[in-house]
Specification:
Blueprint: E1 3-5, E2 12-13, E3 26-28, E4 35-36, E5 49-51, E6 58-59, E7 71-73, E8 89-91
Parallel strand pairs: 1-3, 2-4, 3-5, 4-6, 7-8
């Protein structure tokens, strides 16, 4: 599996859901996502793109632990401290996509 698009019926990503999916390069989270569980995307060394919607306000611990790529995220997310393990972080406003 290299790419994942979560259906809009999903509202949260549970802990460890995509942990250690080493070939995962991109993931698209729908606007319905409001929370990401502990270590839900940790140890995905190939992950280089993850769109996190504005509605996502709750982050578990170490969501992106040991991921060393650039992410595209919403600029309105309040909990950026959980993304500090990301080597470089590019931020784009959703309106400018």
């Amino acid at each position: 599996m290299t790419s994942v698009e979560i259906p809009s019926s999903v509202t949260s990503i549970r802990e460890y859901a995509f942990n250690r999916c080493y070939n995962l390069t991109s993931i698209k989270l729908p606007d319905s996502i409001t929370s990401l569980g502990n270590l839900s995307f940790a140890y995905n060394s190939s992950l280089s793109y993850c769109w996190i919607p504005e509605n996502c306000k709750t982050f578990g611990s170490s969501v992106f632990n040991r991921v060393d790529k650039t992410f595209v995220i919403s600029t309105t997310i309040e909990h950026l401290e959980y993304l500090q393990t990301v080597e470089s972080l590019k931020m784009y406003n959703k309106k400018s996509e």
